[in-house]
Amino acid sequence: MNKKPILIDTDPGMLVRLSTDLDDDLAILFLLASPEIAILGLTCTYGNSSIARTFADAKTLLEHAGRQDIPVFKGAGWRTRDVNRETDASRFLAETVLKRPGEVTVLTLGPLTNLATALTHHPDLAEAIPELVMMGGRLRPGAEFNFGAHPKAADLVLRSAIPKVMVTIELCFQAPLTAAELRRLEDRPDSHLARYLPVIRRWLRLQRFIFSLIRLRYPEIPAGGFFPWDGIAAAYLIDPSLFSEIKVLQVWMEKIGP
Predict the structure, then answer these.
(1) What value, to the nearest 5°, has the Cα angle with vertex 114 and ends 41 and 250?
(2) Which end of the chain, C or N, has fewer beta carbons within 10 A?
(3) Could you read off the pLDDT of 3-22 as tens digits, one per residue?
(4) Superfamily holding 4-176+226-240
(5) In the chain, % of residues over pLDDT 70
């Protein structure tokens, strides 16, 4: 089987304190277990936690998975989100893609600073990326976290020539992970998620509470469990045929902030 080579730009936080989500980690585990995918590296960004914590989380997650062969690079932080400032992550991203032009798919699961920085310093990079899959954005007015964390970076990426697939927040609302799914995982002790079930259960309870409050303002958000946002974008890499009604749109950012 020819594996699809990918780079993952990510802000994982399941294994560290002071994190706001665990969906990046679940998406990475999903892709690690997928024979169709070859992960060439992880570039870490801020978002669900600080850059120091997301970097530590990524290293620990790959150690748990026995995949220390996959390199991990530290990128921008909340206080260093400047596309004019190169980082280890932005350099690795650009160098890896440019060594294999037209081959390496990029998956972004957090704010887009690292990719925007790579594009700023390597103008030929956009032509070398065959596909960019992003978890981010929304179709109705209002900010989505990944794009809203650094609007200028998001706008730079959106206006680039890279072929893009945007997995929006509304799309992810169609796939809640419920207590019933967790019970099925508990019945499979061989599952690679087994060791993480306690933290997943805690997050399910917390996110159900959070969304019960948000639903007062946005009643269209379905009830159920929690939403594994980034796992939906990862699923697109495995099998795009799972997705219907794909729309071709021109997308950009308005009211761009810092």
Answers:
(1) 110
(2) N
(3) 999 999 999 999 998 888 88
(4) Ribonucleoside hydrolase-like (3.90.245.10)
(5) 92
- Tokens matching residue 49: 């936690």
Residue 151 pLDDT level (bands cut at 50, 70, 90): very high
What integer is the mean pLDDT of 227-237? 94
Task: Give one DSSP letter per residue of 98-149, joined into a string.
Answer: HHSTTT-EEEE-S-SHHHHHHHHH-TTHHHH-S-EEEE---SSSS--HHHHT
- Give dist(CA 96, CA 17) in Å, integer: 31
Mean pLDDT for all residues in the chain: 89
The full set of domain ranges for the chain reads 4-176+226-240
Give the separation between CA 147 and CA 125, rounded to whole angstroms. Answer: 20
Handedness of CA 17, 21, 22, 28 (dihedral sign): negative
Q: Which residue has tokens 């120091």?
A: 52
Distance of CA 10 to the CA centre of its chain: 5
SS3 state of residue 67: coil
Q: What is the pLDDT of residue 226?
A: 77
| Nearest CA among 13, 78, 67, 17 for reference residue 39 | 67
**The model's pTM:** 0.91
**Helix 229-238 vs helix 23-32: crossing angle, to nearest 10:** 20
CA distances 145 to 21, 109, 142, 171, 234, Å, are 12, 11, 10, 15, 18
- Crossing angle for the helix pair 151-158 and 113-121, nearest 10 degrees? 60
Q: The tokens 């981010």 sit on which residue?
A: 136
Q: Are the beta carbons of 204 and 182 closer than 8 angstroms?
A: yes
